[in-house]
C-alpha cells in the first residue's frame, strides 16, 4: 500500500536491546500514533516496534489525517483501515481530480461516525480547467460533521439518502454541478433531521436556495453574489447570517427573499434591504437581541444611499435590541458625496455597541459621535478598526476631504453616563484614532476600564508613545489594559 514504507527485518537482536515499546498495551500505542497527526507518518512508525509492524496498528487508529496526499493514496489507506469506526478523516490535498476524490469518499462514508474535513488547494483557473467533472458527495449516514472546501471544483449532491446524525455542515468554495439545484432538498428536515448548524459560503452557480428545517439553530449564507431567490422557513432558528448575497447590478432588482424565523435572537444582515422584495417576518421576531448591519458614511458607489435608507428602516423595526454591531464604511477615495448617517434612529435600549470601522485613512470621529449620541444607554463599546490596506500603505485622506465634517464634534458635549467599558481592537495610533479616544474619555464619565489591542504592524516606538499619551486623557481611577498582539 502507498502509505507504507519498506520495513527492516525486526528481530530480537535489532537495536541491541530490549524492545520496550512492544510491551506497551495497544491502546497506549494507538494513543502515541494519534499524536503523530499524519497517517503516512503513523504508518512509518511501525519500524519502531515488532508488534507495530506485525499488527499494523496505524490501521486501527480512530482518526486519520492526510496532509497533501493524492486522492488515490487516501483511498488505499481507507480501504486498508481496520478500526470499527472512524472519528475523524482530515484530508488536505492539492490533487484537483474530482474523479479520484469521488472514489474514496464512499469508503470514508461507510465507517465515519465523527467528522470529515476535505480541502482541495487549487488555483481558480485549474478548477475551471476541470470542465464537467464533479466531486460526487455520498450519503454520510453516520457522520456528525462535514466540512468540504473543494477549491471551486464542482460538487454533485446525493439525490437520495438520509444524513441521520449530521449536526454541522460547511460547504465552502465550490461550484454547483450543472443541472443540480438540490441543496435545499439535501438540507431539509427529512434528509438531515439532526442538523443544527450550517454554513454555505462562496458558492458559484447557486442562483436560488430554499430551505425548510424544523430544528436548525444556526445558519450562515455568505458571498453568494449570484443568488436571486432565497426562502428560509426555520421555526427553531436562533442565529442567521446573510452577507454578500444576492445578484450584483444590473440584476439586483430581480432578487427576492422570504425569511420566517420567529425564534431568531441574532441577525447579521449586510445586504440591501428593500421591503418590497426582501420579506423578513419582523413582527414575529420578538426575541431578537442582536443585530449586525453595514452603513455607508458617504456615497461611494451607486446604490449606497438606498442601502442606507433601507438599513435605517431595519433599525427602526428593531429599536428594542440591546446589542448592535455596526459596520461603518467610508469610500476609498476623497469624500465628496452627501453624508448618509443623519437618518439613523435613536436606539435607547442598546447596552452593548460594537463599531467596526473601515475608514480607508479617513477621520471617523464625526460618524462615531453620530452613532454614540443615538446609543447613550450603552454600557460597553467595542471599537474594531478594520484596515483595508497594510499599515505602511495607508495615507491620510486628501486635502479637501469632508470626512471630518462637521468638525464641531470635537467640542460637542455627550453624556455617555452608562458607558463603563471600552475595548479598542487593532489600534494604529493615527491622529484620528487618538482624537476619538480623547473625546471618549471626556464623554464617558462612568468609565471603569479601557482595553487597547494594538495593530500587529505598529512600531514598538509608537506603542511606547501611546502608552504615555493615552493615560494623560484619563481619570486616575480608570483601569487601562494593554494587549500587544
TrEMBL record:
Record-linked InterPro entries:
F-box-like_dom_sf, FBL15-like, LRR_dom_sf
The organism's taxonomic lineage, starting at the top: Eukaryota, Viridiplantae, Streptophyta, Embryophyta, Tracheophyta
Recorded protein name is F-box domain-containing protein
Amino acid at each position: 500500500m502507498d502509505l507504507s514504507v519498506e520495513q527492516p527485518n525486526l528481530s530480537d537482536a535489532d537495536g541491541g536491546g530490549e524492545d520496550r515499546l512492544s510491551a506497551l498495551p495497544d491502546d497506549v500505542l494507538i494513543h502515541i500514533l494519534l499524536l503523530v497527526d499524519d497517517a503516512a507518518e503513523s504508518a512509518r512508525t511501525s519500524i519502531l516496534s515488532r508488534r507495530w509492524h506485525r499488527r499494523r496498528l496505524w490501521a486501527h487508529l480512530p482518526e486519520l489525517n492526510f496532509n497533501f496526499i493524492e486522492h488515490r493514496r487516501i483511498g488505499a489507506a481507507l480501504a486498508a483501515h481496520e478500526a470499527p469506526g472512524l472519528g475523524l478523516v482530515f484530508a488536505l490535498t492539492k490533487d484537483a481530480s474530482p474523479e479520484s476524490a469521488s472514489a474514496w469518499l464512499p469508503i470514508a462514508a461507510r465507517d465515519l461516525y465523527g467528522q470529515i474535513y476535505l480541502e482541495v488547494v487549487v488555483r481558480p483557473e485549474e478548477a475551471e480547467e476541470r470542465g464537467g467533472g464533479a466531486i460526487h458527495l455520498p450519503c454520510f449516514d453516520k457522520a456528525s460533521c462535514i466540512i468540504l472546501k473543494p477549491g471551486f471544483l464542482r460538487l454533485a449532491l446525493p439525490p437520495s439518502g438520509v444524513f441521520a446524525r449530521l449536526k454541522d455542515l460547511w460547504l465552502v468554495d465550490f461550484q454547483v454541478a450543472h443541472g443540480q439545484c438540490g441543496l435545499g432538498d439535501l438540507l431539509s428536515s427529512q434528509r438531515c433531521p439532526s442538523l443544527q448548524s450550517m454554513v454555505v459560503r462562496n458558492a458559484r452557480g447557486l442562483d436560488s436556495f430554499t430551505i425548510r428545517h424544523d430544528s436548525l439553530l444556526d445558519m450562515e449564507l455568505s458571498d453568494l453574489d449570484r443568488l436571486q431567490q432565497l426562502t428560509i422557513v426555520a421555526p427553531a432558528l436562533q442565529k442567521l447570517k446573510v452577507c454578500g448575497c444576492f445578484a450584483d447590478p444590473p440584476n439586483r432588482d430581480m432578487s427576492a427573499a422570504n425569511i420566517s424565523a420567529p425564534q431568531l435572537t441574532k441577525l447579521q444582515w449586510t445586504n440591501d434591504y428593500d421591503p418590497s422584495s426582501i420579506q423578513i417576518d419582523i413582527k414575529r421576531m420578538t426575541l431578537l437581541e442582536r443585530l449586525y448591519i453595514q452603513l455607508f458614511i458617504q456615497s461611494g458607489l451607486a446604490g449606497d444611499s438606498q442601502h442606507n435608507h433601507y438599513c435605517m428602516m431595519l433599525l427602526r423595526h428593531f429599536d428594542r435590541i440591546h446589542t448592535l454591531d455596526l459596520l461603518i464604511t467610508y469610500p476609498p477615495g476623497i469624500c465628496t458625496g452627501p453624508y448618509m448617517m443623519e437618518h439613523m434612529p435613536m436606539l435607547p435600549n442598546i447596552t452593548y455597541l460594537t463599531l467596526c470601522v473601515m475608514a480607508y485613512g479617513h477621520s471617523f470621529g464625526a460618524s462615531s459621535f453620530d452613532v454614540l449620541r443615538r446609543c447613550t444607554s450603552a454600557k460597553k463599546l467595542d471599537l474594531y478598526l478594520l484596515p483595508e490596506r497594510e499599515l505602511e500603505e495607508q495615507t491620510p485622506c486628501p486635502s479637501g476631504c469632508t470626512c471630518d465634517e462637521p468638525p464641531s464634534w470635537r467640542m460637542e458635549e455627550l453624556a455617555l453616563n452608562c458607558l463603563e467599558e471600552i475595548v479598542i481592537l487593532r489600534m494604529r495610533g493615527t491622529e484620528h484614532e487618538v482624537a476619538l479616544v480623547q473625546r471618549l474619555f471626556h464623554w464617558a464619565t462612568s468609565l471603569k476600564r479601557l482595553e487597547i489591542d494594538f495593530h500587529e504592524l505598529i512600531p514598538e516606538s509608537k506603542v511606547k508613545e501611546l502608552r504615555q499619551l493615552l493615560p494623560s486623557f484619563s481619570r486616575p481611577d480608570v483601569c487601562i489594559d494593554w494587549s500587544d498582539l
